[in-house]
Structure formats: C-alpha cells, structure tokens
C-alpha cells in the first residue's frame, strides 16, 4: 500500500458519484473523457482511495449534473455537544470505589472514549483493570496518593501526577494514603464499563 492509500480521507464523495454515474448509465470512460481526467482517477475517487481536488470535483459534478449541496449535505449536519451536569452524572460502583461518568461513549469505534472521575477510599483498590483489555488509559490524580501496579512493576502517583499506558496488561490502582483518592480517568476505545 502506498502512503496515499493508507491516508484517511475525511470526505467520502465516491459512493454518491458512483451511484449517480451508474443511474445515468455512464461508463467510467465517458465520465473521465467529459471531465478531462483519467479513467483511473475517477475509479479511485469512486472507491474513496483519493480525495479529488476541488476543480476535479466541480468538473465531475458538472458532467454528472449533481447539485453540490447534495455532495456536501452530510458535512453540514449538526455535530452534537455532550454535556453531563455535575448533579446528573451517572455513576457505577465497584465495591467501595465510585466511577462517575464524565463522557458517554459514542458509537464511533475508531475514536470512542470513556472518561470517569474515580473515587477510591483509603485502603481500597480497583478491580476493573486487573485482567487487562484492549486500548490505552490516561489518568490524572486530582487528590491523594495511589500505587499503580502494572505488569510486575509498581509506580507511586500523587496529586498532580498523570500517567498513560497500554491497557492490554493487568493494572490496578491502590489508594495508599489516608484520604480518598480522586482521579480523572480516560479509556480508549471505550470499554462501556457504565451501561
């Protein structure tokens, strides 16, 4: 695969262009000739292997008699902003430990995250990561002192410290201080711990 094939293309016009071309009964060759581009380029655009230059896209739209609004309509839709009010935050308990949800997981598998305010009483430890799982984790200690057991090593984290790691191996947080630990924890992809 070439770098251009592995590069993620943000706008996918290909399916729409192909459907309209086939509906009109045009071959790739006809569209390419009328647009003044190569047949190979039209094929690659239709398969979303390349993103067309604006002038090429305008020529293809003209040849196929496509309204540009139709091509761009999905990119004009509203993008939701998710807010969880402090007094409406869903939470999950794992024994004495409380996970307050800060962000609900989305259905976007590639970019899904979940985030929690984790509260660990003195002397308690998490169980959730003790088996490991796919993805990565990021934590920020707001208050308290914890011991992170990760594989066969131990790390001490205190207020203001942050940590990130691959979640594929067992990992446990243990409150080793006298006060409750509070930490912000982010997991990607989302494990959907809170249902």
Describe this structure in words.
It is a single chain. The chain contains six helices and nine strands. Helix 3 packs across helix 4 (39-46) and helix 3 packs across helix 5. The model is unreliable at 1-9 (pLDDT under 50). The chain is α+β, with helices and mostly antiparallel strands. The two termini are 39 Å apart. It has a six-stranded antiparallel sheet with strand order 1-2-3-9-4-7, with no helix packed on it. Strands 6-5-8 form a three-stranded antiparallel sheet, with no helix packed on it. Helix content is 24%, strand content 29%. It is elongated, with a radius of gyration of 25 Å.
Task: Give a brief rundown of this model.
The chain is built from 6 helices and 9 strands. It is an alpha+beta fold. It has a 6-stranded antiparallel sheet, with no helix packed on it.
Envelope shape: elongated
Topology as a string of helices (H) and strands (E):
HHHHHHEEEEEEEEE
Report the helical percentage: 10-25%
The count of strands amounts to 9
Largest sheet: 6 strands, antiparallel
* Tally of separate helices: 6
Strand order of the largest sheet: 1-2-3-9-4-7
Q: What structural class results from the helix and strand content?
A: alpha+beta
Distance between the termini: 39 Å
Would you identify the regions where 5 or more consecutive residues have pLDDT less than 50? 1-9
In percent, how much strand structure appears in the residues? 25-35%
Rg over alpha carbons: 25 Å
Average pLDDT figure? 85
